[in-house]
Amino acid sequence: MDALQLLTWSLILYLFASLASLFLLGLDRLAIKLSGITSLVGGVIGIISGITQLHGGVTLVARFATPFDFADLTLRMDSLSAFMVLIISLLVVVCSLYSLTYMREYEGKGAAAMGFFMNLFIASMVALLVMDNAFWFIVLFEMMSLSSWFLVIARQDKTSINAGMLYFFIAHAGSVLIMIAFLLMGRESGSLDFASFRTLSLSPGLASAVFLLAFFGFGAKAGMMPLHSWLPRAHPAAPSHASALMSGVMVKIGIFGILKV
């Protein structure tokens, strides 16, 4: 079993934990245990996947056709994505262990719903790292932003809601810039696959425009100045284990996006 196949099993476990938490609404104690243990196992498999790919060194590519040419599901795992998978998975293991006790304070306060969004957040981040199609990249990027936003406002107090609204606005402003950059490259290449983007030769003016759009779009997610105002407000508002992933990993996704484009 290669690294990409291992990562697929990791993603399946995160999605299972997410959906199971949804069906366990009102059964918070059981949801906490199931979500924490399942994501822990998913994280361990993710660690093995990252190490396997870094040791092997050969870029892995898998492509799955869809009825729409622009939305073919293309996965690509290279050393950079493997390193990021390894880092995320290590943090997931730590956060999952911590959540088994920490989330008890949320029993009766929506712990199962938090498990749903937490595992969806993890799955979208991990899948994003190996996605090699701009359409699905944006879908996963939005999934990551929305699920983390729900975690930010989970406490439902004035501070968390205000922090969540600021985060929501800046995150989606960044997404719009990224979408425009991808559409410009897609128009020139005739495809939304990153493989075609990597071989694309743009005019200096268009290349500069695409770079600036992507830089500020992903920079908003990375918390770069002057787009950082959401970061010190949103991260503390989220539950502690979610905040650890947001500050430890999610902001790095922005840097990863800049490097990928």
TrEMBL record:
Keywords: Cell membrane, Membrane, Oxidoreductase, Transmembrane, Transmembrane helix
InterPro entries from the UniProt entry: ComplexI-like_HydComp, ND/Mrp_TM, Proton_antipo_N
Domain NADH-Ubiquinone oxidoreductase (complex I) chain 5 N-terminal: 72-108
Keyword Transmembrane helix: yes
Cross-referenced Pfam families: Proton_antipo_M, Proton_antipo_N
UniProt domain NADH:quinone oxidoreductase/Mrp antiporter transmembrane: residue ranges: 136-260
Transmembrane segments: 6-27, 39-62, 82-103, 110-129, 135-154, 166-185, 205-224
Membrane topology value: Multi-pass membrane protein
Subcellular location: Cell membrane; Membrane
Signal peptide: none
Chain segments annotated as coiled-coil in the UniProt record: none
One cellular component (GO) term of this entry: plasma membrane
Domain of life, per lineage: Bacteria
GO molecular function (one): oxidoreductase activity
Protein name from the UniProt record: Hydrogenase 4 subunit B
